[in-house]
């Protein structure tokens, strides 16, 4: 019954708050239950156990599919920024970076410090404003809003500490503001494409961060290590071809994931509707078990 639409709607109607709606125990405990005889309750439970198990299995399969698509995305990005996208068999050389391995012979490797300016913001999470005029980048993948901006131009941003280290990345070209523990990478030289650098960091930064760390998270990304992070790249035209390729591949994967998630939502809605119908007597399940 607590999973039924009747109870959910009643609880929502008695909740308060926008970002984090909440209800009181007094209001929840006053909810009215339709209580059939115990034999009928048992029949409803048995029916819903069977039906929801099948729905949950379908949901689990679709969620695994989204995970596989995300893994495919990661592999595509990693391959493109490590080996390029040419079909030709090209000469390779040792990058002299343990986790990177071989790269095309004509690519070069430079520390990030020589490819961009790196600094941090001066804002805190509490400075976010609903419906603010400008994007505000904090230490999560969620883009907040704010009424100020401290930079106008192309930049890559990544979390400097917290659970988002090595996992949270943004690319933007325009006015924005950013958190005091978010790194802004900007002012790229003429031979480096900012979006390429975004994809490269997204694919590889965590390899450097976690190479000597058994944990799946670290407390912070230190500036000296970040400045020394090795970037492998070819010519500007090749970088842009890689970016266009990855943009197209990402769009295709995003569309597939969107369809799968829509399917998951429909299954969840069906699950809730089925439970509602069973616990409110709209369907008679006594002959189904």
What is the spatial order of strands in the main beta sheet? 4-9-7-8-5-6
Shape: elongated
Briefly note the structural class of the backbone.
alpha+beta
Strand fraction band?
15-25%
Taking all Cα atoms into account, the compactness measure Rg is 25 Å
Helix content: 40-55%
Mean pLDDT value: 90
Q: Tell me the number of helical segments per DSSP (H or I, 4 or more residues long).
A: 6
Poorly predicted spans: none
Distance linking N and C termini = 19 Å
Order of helices and strands: HHHEEEEEEEEEHHEH
Number of strands: 10
Main beta-sheet strand count, sense and barrel state: 6 strands, mixed
Describe this structure in words.
Helix content is 44%, strand content 17%. With 289 residues, the chain is of the alpha+beta class. The strands form three sheets. Strands 4-9-7-8-5-6 form a six-stranded mixed β-sheet, with helices on one face. It has a two-stranded antiparallel ribbon with strand order 1-2. Helix 3 packs antiparallel against helix 6. It starts with a helix and ends in a 10-residue tail after the last helix.
Q: Outline of this structure?
A:
Helices cover 44% and strands 17% of the residues. With 289 residues, it is an alpha+beta fold.
Task: Summarize the topology.
Blueprint: H1 5-13, H2 25-29, H3 38-83, E1 92-94, E2 102-104, E3 108-111, E4 117-120, E5 134-137, E6 143-146, E7 151-159, E8 169-178, E9 182-186, H4 194-210, H5 223-227, E10 230-233, H6 236-279
Parallel strand pairs: 5-8
Antiparallel strand pairs: 1-2, 3-10, 4-9, 5-6, 7-8, 7-9
């Amino acid at each position: 019954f607590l999973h039924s639409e009747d109870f959910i709607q009643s609880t929502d109607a008695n909740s308060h708050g926008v970002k984090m709606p909440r209800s009181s125990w007094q209001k929840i405990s006053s909810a009215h239950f339709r209580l059939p005889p115990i034999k009928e309750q048992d029949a409803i439970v048995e029916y819903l156990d069977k039906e929801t198990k099948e729905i949950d299995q379908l949901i689990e399969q679709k969620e695994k599919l989204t995970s596989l698509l995300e893994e495919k995305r990661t592999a595509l990005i990693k391959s493109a920024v490590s080996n390029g996208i040419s079909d030709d068999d090209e000469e390779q050389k040792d990058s002299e970076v343990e986790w990177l391995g071989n790269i095309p012979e004509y690519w070069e490797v430079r520390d990030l410090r020589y490819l961009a300016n790196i600094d941090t913001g001066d804002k805190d999470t509490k400075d976010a404003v609903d419906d603010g005029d400008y994007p505000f980048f904090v230490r999560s993948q969620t883009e907040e809003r704010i009424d100020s901006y401290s930079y106008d131009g192309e930049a890559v941003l990544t979390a400097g500490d917290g659970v988002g280290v090595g996992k949270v990345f943004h690319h933007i070209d325009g006015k924005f503001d950013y958190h005091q523990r978010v790194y802004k990478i900007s002012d790229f030289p003429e031979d480096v494409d900012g979006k390429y650098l975004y994809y490269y960091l997204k694919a590889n930064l965590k390899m450097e961060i976690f190479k000597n760390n058994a944990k799946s998270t670290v407390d912070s990304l230190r500036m000296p290590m970040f400045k020394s992070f090795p970037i492998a790249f070819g010519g500007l035209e090749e970088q842009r071809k890689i970016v266009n390729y990855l943009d197209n591949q990402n769009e295709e994967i995003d569309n597939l994931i969107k369809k799968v998630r829509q399917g998951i939502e429909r299954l969840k809605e069906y699950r809730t509707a089925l439970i509602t119908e069973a616990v409110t007597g709209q369907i008679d399940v006594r002959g189904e078990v």
